[in-house]
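User: Predict the complex.
Assistant: Input components as received:
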Amino acid sequence: MDHHHDQGLAALPWELLLVAGLAGAAAGYAVAVVAARRRAGWPLHRTVLWYLGLACAAAAVTGPVAVAARTSFTAHMLGHLLLGMVAPLLIVLAAPVTLLLRALPVGRARSVTRFLRSPGVRVVAHPVTAALLNAGGLWLLYTTELFHRAHASAPLGLVVQAHVLLAGCLFTASLVGPDSRLHPVSLRVRATVLVLFVAAHSVLAKWLYAHPPATVSLQDASTGAQLMYYGGDVVDVTLMVLVAAGWYRATGRRSGVRADRIVPTVGGTASRRGAARGEERLEARSAR
Amino acid sequence: MSAAVPPERTPDGPAGTQPGADRRTVVSGFLFGCGVAASIIDLAVFHLGLQWHHFYDLSTTEVALVADGVFHALGWFVTVWSLFLLADVRRRAEVVWRRWAGAVTAGVGAFQLFDGVVDHKVLGIHQIRYGVDLLPYDVVWIGSAVVVLLAGLVVLRRTRPARAGG
């Protein structure tokens, strides 16, 4: 098996790489908030969401859950739920791209926008691509040998964890959140992708229940698979609420119904500034 | 400014007096009924409450497993969506709640009927209960679904908005 060859590599604290990445993200956001506050302001709740998201991701890669995940499938699943679904949702709602654009000087913000709107980024950030990367990664992990290899080899495990987090963020950002305004995608596409993703996720959970990885006990597999199914539901339904709320706001704005009965945007300031830049128009288009 | 707002968007008067709003009230209620029956009633009553269903009975074909996954996802989506649709009707017009309730009832009945016939019998995703003679369960399930559906349709008929000018 691989772990005999990887003894030397396994001795390295690989998980520290991910922790260092998360610490960098924590510091970077703080610097950007300071810069953005000097120009306009930044809602406190977004900052709170960011650090909660990073905390969830950190809890999945290091500490008691990560240690337990080496032997318990249920703990492994809890870690994946935190890393691949809960943390991405919180991170995306913290609007890091919007913050970056606000923190940078206008000229550099424009080049970042140009890069984010380039065809390559557009393709990768499209809900269909993002969903395939996200769900495809999960299917590979649980239906092939990858699950055992990732547990046996620390570097490979690190790559899998990084993929789970990044693909989760990409998928979430393609569907909801203020940053998704950069790539407006029709509501129909987003809703369809979300429903198909939820279906794939629940099918995989039931498939795992029936075909657990070889080393996992039946009891552990049953609890882990149900955690995946119902825990995934909680995050998925939250995503559905956010997609539907986006439609509700955009359709109200388009048809000019009484503003006082429209649910306020998560970041009122972000939305007003967006309007000034014509980004609101994009959001309205994306809700069609 | 107000001259630019089309008449159907004026936010006063009951939904019944506005054709668009009435249709959307019924759609919202029907979808909510279907969604609630699919995602919540099954989970709360038969899975957690009576414990007649299990998480997965391991007997399902792959096609049925995928169909089950899609129904599961659609059930939640429709539940969420229908409530935002209702909120949208509410901010444009007054909701006729009896009509909405009728549509919800019809939706629950329609989904239970679909579940009892297609999911249980045609696709065989799962059964109502295990280790018992299924016939009485199926009869009661499908029969009650038809009764609920008809009751919802009766309420919908009775709460039909009066035709304009009639």
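Chain A touches chain B at residues 191, 194-203, 206-207, 209-210, 222, 225-226, 229, 233, 236-237, 240-241, 244-245, 247-248, 251-252, 255-258, 261-263 (CB under 8 Å).
Let me know if you want any component modeled separately.
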